[in-house]
Design a protein that fits this description.
Blueprint lengths: L1 H18 L1 H5 L2 H5 L10 H20 L7 H11 L4 H11 L7 H17 L3 H14 L3 H18 L2 H17 L4 H17 L3 H18 L2 H18 L2 H17 L3 H18 L7 H22 L3 H24 L7 H15 L2 H25 L2 H18 L2 H58 L4 H69 L3 H29 L6 H18 L3 E7 L9 H21 L4 E8 L3 E8 L6 H5 L2 H12 L3 E6 L5 E8 L2
Parallel strand pairs: 1-2
Antiparallel strand pairs: 2-3, 3-5, 4-5
Helix pairs in contact: 1-4, 5-6, 6-7, 6-8, 7-8, 8-9, 9-10, 10-11, 10-12, 11-12, 12-13, 12-14, 13-14, 14-15, 14-16, 15-16, 16-17, 16-18, 17-18, 18-19, 18-20, 19-20, 20-21, 21-22, 22-23, 24-25, 25-27
Length: 704
């Protein structure tokens, strides 16, 4: 009997292949293109997907058993191919069933549901299919387009719950996929506005939570706290213990950000109590995550106690933090979860305790810190997690410093800064891409509106000839409005470009401060530690040498800071100001080397204004050339010449020293730096020198 059953179903499916495959696909390729503007789908692709789909039915049928699952029932409905709303719902059921389907197959079922619903004009099915596509689709623009179209259809059939769900999906995609907190808040508020009318507290609670988290990202702690407290109250009304615990934790994070650690500790402890009562019903990550948050609060309280010169309280807090981090680590081990966060937290706790312990106890604590740092680095490397590397090297260079391994401390500090800078750069790239996506979508939306308006105008003119004048005026008015809207987007784009330019300049200044000042300060800090060690060993010669190095480094740092401040000062933007600065620097360098100075400035437009990039690169070019001539030429004369000839500014630094082989210089860093300065402003770098005949370095910039 079982064999007969299988044979019957096999013959039925073969009949389906012969008679119904063409019917399923005819006319659906044109309909599918309505889902996404510009998306082209080739019929061959869908023949293959349908064939795979039908083969899966054959496999399913040949393994038929007496008991049927919900998936079996859905597949049976599709095999019957009624071509009605029941088939649409069955396709959507398969698309949304968590059965390990790949996204491509889930999209396939959802798209087939959409095409069939369109063909039979099943509006609710069309909206449901678009929502399914919006959920599954990875591309944000396609997902947004599908959900926006679903909102339009749901509005026409009067389904506020469905509209709220669409807004909630868009809000989540903006926050978790596009990292656009502002737009996430906008759509979450739209969802809440619809849900409030229907008194749907269950739908409002997660939206209030999302708004709170988005405000945390935007740095608005007061609004974040207000929204999170509302979400907590909603979860209390719903008696949703897991959601309530999550709210408590997020509120604690806000308090921690405001340095109100006592309040933060209370909120996290409330969350922990709830998770423990839920036991197996609690989310898998809940208890471990909360233990880590409590440990972080205790760690911060310990740091605050140290700042207040209260080492006993600090020691108490660090011991407490270590306890919670160890418990978190144990929980993660039991769940076979990653120790990405807990390992670095433990390393930091052992480091904090080591600072307060005696030398005998310190070594053991530092060894434990090393162990967890290495584990954190291993996890970060295996997961490609850049923030993990950044945090690990941040702790590691402090552990090296406390261990007296200053060379390793310096190397690890440089790695920490490198990874930190890469995170900042990536964040700026993500922001720029987000702005570009928003602008392109807005522009595309304007074009669609313009085309729709023109079509409506043509139809009205054909149907009602006597109302041509009124419709023409209405069309012109709409075009003007759309033109104004386009102008608004243009101005918004220009503003974003200006903000990006300002951000780039700020990043450049921060890099210069880091490169020029940070490394020097790190060197001073390490030599200060070295000096302490030399004093203890009564190495007076070493102490004097270290102090001399710190003095020289400090003087260099002051000069570099003066240069940075002068270069970004907009008041000093004229050529005359630049000449005065260069002449002063030339005379100072020459005086230090007992060299004579010749300054010759002819035919130069004194009030010529230079932009910041030109002024910066000209100044640094000339300064490096003057410095090289004073230090290495061995000459008795140093000359600075600036002249204007045929709209070309010519800067020249000349000495009567030993000269050198130009080919040898090109292989070094000095000449490359000068060439890079010239290239950055579109200028020409010229070098004239030979052994025994001095050297002349020139920069020629065309005046526009």
């Amino acid at each position: 009997m079982k064999k007969f059953c299988r044979l019957f179903i096999y013959k039925y499916v073969l009949y389906y292949l012969q008679s119904n495959l063409k019917t399923l696909l005819d006319g659906e390729m044109t309909t599918l293109k309505k889902i996404y503007p510009g998306k082209i789908v080739f019929p061959l692709q869908y023949w293959r997907q349908s064939l795979a789909f039908l083969i899966s039915i054959i496999t399913f049928s040949l393994n038929c058993v007496a008991q049927r699952s919900p998936m079996d029932s859905l597949m049976n409905i599709i095999i019957q191919n009624r071509g009605d709303s029941t088939t649409v719902n069955a396709l959507l059921g398969i698309a949304g069933t968590p059965s390990g389907q790949k996204d491509s197959m889930a999209i396939h079922y959802a798209e087939k549901a959409y095409m069939l619903a369109e063909r039979i004009q099943y509006k609710r099915g069309i909206a449901a299919a678009l929502i399914a596509i919006g959920k599954i689709e990875d591309d944000f623009k396609n997902s947004f387009a599908a959900l926006a179209k679903a909102v339009d259809i749901l509005g026409k059939i009067g389904d506020p719950k469905g509209i709220a769900d669409c807004y909630a999906l868009i809000a989540n995609k903006y926050f978790y996929q596009e990292f656009n907190a502002a737009e996430a808040i906008n759509y979450a508020l739209k969802a809440i506005a619809v849900l409030e009318k229907n008194n749907d507290i269950k739908g409002q609670a997660p939206m209030l939570m999302l708004i709170g988290n988005a405000y945390i990202e935007l740095g608005n702690e007061e609004k974040a706290l207000e929204s999170l407290i509302k979400s907590k109250e909603a979860y209390l009304l719903l008696n949703d213990r897991a959601g309530l615990a999550y709210s408590y934790n997020n509120i604690g994070l806000v308090y921690a950000g405001k340095r109100q650690y006592g309040y933060a500790y209370e909120q996290h402890c409330q969350a922990l109590t709830i998770y423990k009562k839920l036991d197996t019903l609690a989310p898998a990550f809940g208890i471990a995550y909360t233990l880590g948050l409590i440990g972080s609060v205790q760690q911060n309280m310990g740091d605050s106690a140290l700042d207040a010169a209260n080492p006993q309280e600090a020691l108490k807090r660090f011991d407490s933090a270590l306890y919670y981090f160890r418990e978190q680590y144990k929980m993660e081990t039991q769940r076979n979860a990653s120790h990405r966060i807990s390992s670095i937290s433990l390393a930091r706790s052992f480091l904090s305790l080591a600072r307060l312990k005696s030398p005998a106890e310190r070594k053991e604590l530092l060894n434990k810190s090393y162990r967890y740092i290495n584990e954190a680095l291993t996890i970060a490397e295996s997961e490609g997690f850049t923030p993990g590397r950044t945090n690990a090297y941040s702790v590691l260079h402090e552990v090296d410093e406390l261990s007296g391994n200053y060379k390793a401390a310096y190397d690890h500090y440089r790695l920490y800064v490198s990874y930190k800078d890469s995170l900042v750069t990536q964040e700026n790239i993500d922001n720029a891409n987000s702005y570009k996506t928003q602008y392109e979508y807005g522009k595309k939306e304007d074009q669609i509106k313009l085309l729709a308006t023109e079509n409506e105008l043509k139809t009205a003119l054909a149907q009602k000839e006597n109302q041509r004048k009124n419709f023409a005026l209405a069309g012109i008015g709409i075009i003007i409005l759309i033109g104004g809207y386009g102008f608004y987007w243009f101005r918004k784009k220009k503003r974003l470009q200006n903000e990006q330019t300002l951000m780039t300049e700020r990043l450049r200044i921060s890099r210069e401060l880091h490169d020029e000042v940070g490394a020097t300060l790190s060197g001073v800090a390490m030599y200060s530690h070295l000096t302490k060690t030399q004093l203890q060993s009564q190495d007076l010669a070493g102490v004097e040498n270290s102090l001399n190095i710190m003095q020289d480094s400090s003087a260099q740092m002051v000069n570099k800071l003066n240069d940075i401040v002068w270069l970004i000062n907009p008041v000093k933007s004229s050529l005359a100001d630049l000449m005065q600065r260069l002449e002063e620097y030339t005379r100072n360098m020459a005086a230090a080397k007992n060299m004579e100075v010749e300054v010759n400035i002819t035919g130069v437009v004194q009030q010529l204004q230079l932009n910041m990039e030109q002024r910066r690169n000209i100044y640094l070019f000339c300064k490096e050339a003057i410095n090289n001539a004073a230090k290495y030429s061995g000459g008795t004369m140093l000359g600075l010449s600036v002249r204007e000839e045929e709209k070309i500014l010519k800067f020249s630094i000349k000495d009567n020293g030993n000269g050198f082989d130009p080919e040898a210089v090109r292989r070094g860093n000095g000449s490359d730096n000068l060439q890079q300065r010239a290239d950055a402003i579109g200028a020409e770098y010229i070098l004239h020198t030979s052994e025994g005949k001095g050297c002349e370095v020139s920069l020629q910039l065309k005046i526009t």
